[in-house]
Amino acid sequence: MELDEIKSAWEQYDKHLANNLSIDETKLKETGPEWAKNQMQYPFVSEMVELIGGLVVIVAVLAFSFIFIDEPVYLLVGLLTVFTGFLFIGFTIKKIRLLKQVEYYDTSVVILQSEIAFVKRKILQYRKIELLLYPVYIFPLIPITSKMLYGHDILESINLLAGKYLVALVLAYLIVFLIRRHFYDKKFKALESLLAKIKEFEKE
User: Fold this and answer.
1) Is the separation of the CB atoms in 144 and 74 below 8 Å?
2) pLDDT tens-digit profile of 142-186?
3) What torsion do the CA atoms of 117, 101, 48, 143 make, to the nearest 10 degrees?
4) Are 60 and 148 in contact, with CB atoms under 8 Å apart?
5) What is the residue-wise DSSP string for 80-121?
6) SS3 assignment, position 188
7) 131 Cβ partners below 8 Å, 6+ apart?
8) Which of 17, 50, 164, 198 has the fewest CB within 10 Å, making it most exposed?
9) Regarding predicted confidence, which is higher, 117 or 56?
10) Is 151 left (phi over 0), alpha (psi -120 to 50) or beta?
């Protein structure tokens, strides 16, 4: 009698577990695409902010460069900043297009995984190029901003220029690292984990 009760209880537990797994699978498949799309909004918003900020910097530097048109060095420094800024803008636009091209609905998990992997790989390539460009972008930005905001001719003091350059470069890399870790790396990892779970459910 006790054996029959244990067997009955085990069957009920097994049935309850199977039902819960079925509910979890259905819920995961229903909410998966929407959740995945929401996760990718963080990198998208980050790139949009970077795009707008980059355009503001370009317009400001370009305007002030022509104010100092009688000082060829500052005009050259300003134009170099603008040129590098446009390179960043180009990479940002490409990353935004990559993020927007992903189809989250009416597509298989395998295809979505492939698309996410492609987007992640391309964005990492652009990020590596951007990291190499930061020293070139920041160096001319320091003297032109010092001249614009404070009227200081920082080019007259190599030591002061070098000190500010190193501080600005370290801060830039630190800020970029924190932003990308929070808005990119964590979101991509969470999305990849979700897709892996859905794929496991489909196998079962």
Assistant:
1) yes
2) 888 777 777 777 777 778 778 888 888 899 889 888 888 877 777
3) 70
4) yes
5) HHHHHHHHHHHHHHHHHHHHHS---SSS-HHHHHHHHHHHHH
6) helix
7) 173, 176
8) 17
9) 56
10) left
d(CA 138, CA 84): 9
Q: Determine how many CB atoms are found less than 10 A away from the CB of residue 15.
A: 10
Q: How far is CA 181 from CA 92, 115, 190, in A?
A: 17, 21, 12
Rounded Cα distance, 99 and 46, in Å: 11
Token pair recorded at residue 77: 């420094």
- Which tens digits make up the pLDDT trace of 15-65? 544 444 343 444 444 455 666 677 778 888 888 988 999 999 889 888 887
Largest CA-CA distance found in the chain, in angstroms, rounded? 102
Rounded distance between C-alpha atoms, residue 159 and residue 146, angstroms:
15
- Please choose, from the candidates 154, 94, 102, the residue with its C-alpha nearest in 3D space to the C-alpha of residue 124: 94
